[in-house]
Regulatory-associated protein of TOR 1-like (Hibiscus sabdariffa), 1029 residues
Amino acid sequence: MVTSSRFCTRSLLHESLDCLLIDKIPGRQNDRKTLLGELNWIFTAVTDTIAWNVLPHELFRRLFRQDLLVASLFRNFLLAERIMRSANCSPVSYPMLPPTHQHHMWDAWDMAAEICLSQLPALVEDHNAEFQPSPFFTEQLTAFEVLLSQCHRFRALVLLGRFLDMGPWAVDLALSVGIFPYVLKLLQTTTPELRQILVFIWTKILALDKSCQVDLVKDGGHVYFIRFLNSVEAYPEQRAMAAFVLAVIVDGHRRGQEACIEAGLIHVCLKHLHGSMQNDAQTEPLFLQWLCLCLGKLWEDFTEAQIIGLQADAPSICAPLLSEPQPEVRASAVFALATLLDVGFDSFRDGVGGDEECDDDEKSRAEIVVIIKSLLNIVSDGSPLVRAEVAVALARFAFGHKQHLKSIAAAYWKPQSNSLLNSLPLLANINGSGNIVSSHVGPLIRVGNDNSAVVRDGRVSTSSPLATAGVMHGSPMSDDSSQHSDSGILNDGISNGVIRHSRSKPLDNAMYSQCVLAMCTLAKDPSPRIATLGRRVLSIIGIEQVTKSVKSAGSSARPGDPATSSPTPSFAGLARSSSWFDMNGGHLPLTFRTPPVSPPRQSLLTGMRRVCSLEFRPHLMNSPDSGLADPHLGSSGVSERSLLPQSTIYNFSCGHFSKPLLTASDDSEELLTRREERERFALEHIVKCQHSSVSKLNNNSQIASWDTRFETGTRTALLQPFSPIVIAADENERIRVWNYEEATPLNGFDNHDFPEKGISKLCLLNELDNSLLLVASCDGNIRIWKDYTVRGKQKLVTAFSSIQGHKPGVRSLSAVLDWQQQSGYLYASGEISSIMLWDLDKEQLVNSIPSSSDCSVSALASSQVHAGQFAAGFVDGSVRLYDIRIPDMLVCATRPHTQQVERVVGIGFQPGLDQGKIVSASQAGDIQFLDIRNQRDTYLTIDAHRGSLTALAVHRHAPIIASGSAKQLIKVFSLEGEQLGIIRYQHTFMAQKIGSVSCLTFHPYQVLLAAGAADACVSIYADDNSQAR
């Protein structure tokens, strides 16, 4: 009575509401259609909201979620505290609760109560009067209890979905409130409009908490998502979420796998994958990706499911996805195929028997052959994400077939035969797959009880100092823990060089040979983590790879050299989509012993793929599934199979759903502003360059000189477009960065740990944004770096081999390449018979263009105006123009260098919009100006140097070119052939002659010329007009 009287006197209704009516409120507490039930419902929502905001989350769960009576008791205590505090009384509870009587939600309660009670006089007077529901839940949809109220359910779910999309913290808070049983119960509804938002909510929940899979299967929730996955009216992005939910349900959960198989999930996924291949329209990549991941998780470590997949032609359906443009889709397809390689795992195990069962199952064997052939075709994929999955797949295959693979490897590494030089590559070519792996098998080593033999790049040496450890001795994952001698293994399977098998093999020798070659290729991968995985795979079949670093104590950095420390590089794939995340990767020691002596070191995987407008979104996934199993092999109680390298694509892909999906992630205002400023700068200076009249470039034009301290001289250099920075590299693949205005070194690091051939090219990717440094080695390996101007902060973004398929007998690739920003294409060639066209946006080889010449390409240049157009110079002095937009690709060919047939040293497109105007320079010293679309003969010839031309540079916009000579000479010409200047290197104060010119490069938007020399000196020159400005 006191409470009702106090409420009525404080209420806005005090004039019309009699406090005696409070005790006559009609209705039932459990009936929301009555006044009393509505008030009780609102009171519950308000008090729960207050408690959740004020109490610690653990205490809230204990008092308000574990027991209904306790929850009711403490709700009433919150109300009692508010009333008694107003009467100067202090209520006490155990456990003691923080004050709640002044929480702002009490104002919402007062308002809702007044609105409800405003109907009380009419309801008391007329018992037939109908109660009008309160607008409280329409206006206050933050109370999660309304989820079970049909009139507000859809709006409440949408609001909940928007809240969960804010991040993992929001999901955690929602689960702590007790949202789980409500959304679980809602899966029993059949309301069509709720399906999409429910799938979204469960996607967000399972992206954070995988443990919900048990309750989902127990309540039959998986059927709800399978039906949604199979519905054609839903958008592909939404069905991708359903596939993700199902993948989480079956991830490591045998009951979930069995339940989903019973519900026909395998056939549903395969049906949609097959349909996407038949449909000409592009299927949503995320949908394809998660169909593959769902299948892989569904039959992972589950033989019955794998057999169903093989019988349903799963390999033939998944294999076409390996050519999809998205690396995530390709990697997911590899994962799905790899998990099928366990079929017949026990029957393939050495010494177990049961091969006859596999022989009887020709279907399974044929499907496994399809899988292996498909994997071999992408061993040299452009994405490290894909190659990592291939390595993991080959590790699974090697473990199941290791005795056969060991026998093949042992036969070709026998010291008394030279079969490694011939037989293994030939066997790899039997099925026409010789171009999938590098012809350089080494450096590999085998040592036994007999004469040691070391194979390096196809040569056998019996006296190498590296011959210190056995290849064929016991691998950590060999049949038993004892170490086998070479003779022991060879006698087990080989007699007089011929492989014997007491049982029929699942595959033929040619297939096993190709697998061994593929493993060797992965072991020499330019990406450190992939190479580690490749060596891990080789160790399974008893091959140990030892690579000798060219770094020695004598090549340590000099005092003051910024390259004194270089952290372990990280790497990643090129990120195309709006969500690409960092992940942890392992890095093992270079050689494998029994067991390895140290745990893996952390290596960061960072994302990059949009080549025209790149944005990094770092996201660390602290997952134990890092792609490398614990290296301490041989631990007791742990199965050998559990020590295999683990896939990373699943955990990597799960990170996508942890990010906000409902809000667009546009570039920040700061990035847009900087991009616009750089665009203005570029346009202004392009106009100046096009209309500039270069006065002179000579020795007096030098504005900076830098001693790089390279021991082998400067091999190549690059000027940054928007900063006074020059980047240089040497034969040992050391990279150094220098600010030429302040004359200070910024950074220095090694391109990789085992340089062999030197660096052939430096390019900038995404120069309008935070540019990336593309470093091309002479062996065709590409590495892309970010943060390369900050000392010690450089990170390896991605790495791949750009040249595949070598000419017979060629030992040095002499790779040449160029980057085209507009198209996102990288053109690469060398001592091969074709020009490789890579799409860095897709991280994929999109074409192999026949060079139409018996000679090798010695110079490449892409047009910076016309996307898809490039020119190539050859060692016989010929020049060809290509355009990938036309069917034949080869536009025209000519041989301008006829007086002395020498290799083309440099080639470039002339500034301007003319598509066929090219400048070509040969080693003989002549520079030819061509318009090969209009006439085959040159229209201008400059005899710049006599038999000693070493470098050519063509300005991107200004009408000038420069050529360098081995005779310490640089000449600058106009496009009309007028000599604008000559730069002669002088004697130094030590009276030593400065070395020959090794490289030349122009600033893209200013008349600045950087010249590198064999003496490690880099000089920068500016014309008089530029210096005046």
About this structure: The two ends are 90 Å apart (CA to CA). The longest strand covers residues 744-750. The chain is about 35% helix and 20% strand. The chain has a mean pLDDT of 76.
